[in-house]
Amino acid sequence: MKLLVPVKRVVDYNVKIRVKPDGSGVELANVKMSMNPFDEIAIEEAVRLKEQGKATEIVAVSIGPAQAAETIRTALAMGADRGILVKTDATVEPLAVAKILKKLVEQESPQLVIMGKQAIDDDANQTGQMLAALLGWPQGTFAFKVALDTNTIDVTREVDGGLQTVSLTLPAIVTTDLRLNEPRYASLPNIMKAKKKPLDETTPETLGVDVAPRLKVVKTAEPGGRKAGVKVGSVAELVNKLKTEAGVL
Ligand code: AMP
């Protein structure tokens, strides 16, 4: 069984985000970039399914600039078999990503697409659902646990107030939640081996997908800073302030 795993290159989760002075977006120059954490979980799950003998091939895909090849190499070092880079310097919105992934699914015919529930840069949480709609495939989103069989996959989902298990007929889309697994670190030998694994390149134009944006970012702003605190002289003063200023008593 072939698995397709989309991996996005995003600002590393440890980086303190800075907004561009003109408010047009987030500063990306000289910022550490990494694989989207939910996509690491997706790769880990795919590799575990291969180790269990349930999957035979894992194809990692990234849509982005030339440097997104590094993200694919990370996926290859974790255990993916080959990569496809859809190279573009444009900002690619979830709908365009889903259209590109649809084309690749038609070319590659995977039985399962495992992807992150959301990319931590724009927090869209849209691509998996859009891809399922475009393909007419069933979707199991926010996966907490998966059980893959020959023709079906049971996905236990994190929902408000508990867990829900759905049974999907393959081919299907699964999006990963945080508690599905703990991704492994790539070992040095595997990082070296990954350099020799195949990585094909294509473009949105070659795939016939128009990635022109449909959304316009009106404004990006940092959250307002916290106001400085005050020291009170006595409990009576504190109670008075809670009553008259904070209005919580
Ligand atoms: P989003 O809908 O943007 O929050 O992204 C959800 C998931 O779609 C991510 O976790 C990735 O698996 C996939 N995805 C989104 N954008 C890209 C991209 N440019 N390249 C590869 N995968 C992507």
Report on the architecture of this protein.
- Helices cover 29% and strands 26% of the residues.
- It has a single domain (2-246), classed as Rossmann fold, CATH 3.40.50.
- The strands form two sheets. A nine-stranded mixed sheet has the order 9-8-7-10-6-1-4-5-11, sandwiched between helices. Strands 2-3 form a two-stranded antiparallel ribbon.
- It has 249 residues and is α/β, with parallel strands linked by helices.
- The N and C termini lie far apart (62 Å).
- α2 (68-78) crosses α5 and α3 (94-108) packs across α4 (127-135).
- It is built from seven helices and eleven strands.
* Strand residues, percent: 25-35%
Give the C-level CATH assignment.
Alpha Beta
Task: Supply the number of helical segments.
Answer: 7
What is the C-alpha radius of gyration, as a whole number of Å? Answer: 22 Å
Detail the poorly predicted runs. none
Share of helical residues: 25-40%
Structural class: alpha/beta
List keywords for this structure.
electron transport; binds adenosine monophosphate; alpha/beta; single chain; Rossmann fold; 249 residues; ETF_a/b_N; two-stranded antiparallel ribbon; 29% helix; 7 helices
Helices and strands in order, then pairings?
Blueprint: E1 2-6, E2 9-11, E3 33-35, H1 37-51, E4 57-64, H2 68-78, E5 82-87, H3 94-108, E6 112-116, H4 127-135, E7 139-148, E8 152-159, E9 162-169, E10 172-176, H5 188-194, E11 199-202, H6 204-207, H7 235-246
Parallel strand pairs: 1-4, 1-6, 4-5, 5-11, 6-10, 7-10
Antiparallel strand pairs: 2-3, 7-8, 8-9
Bound molecules: adenosine monophosphate.
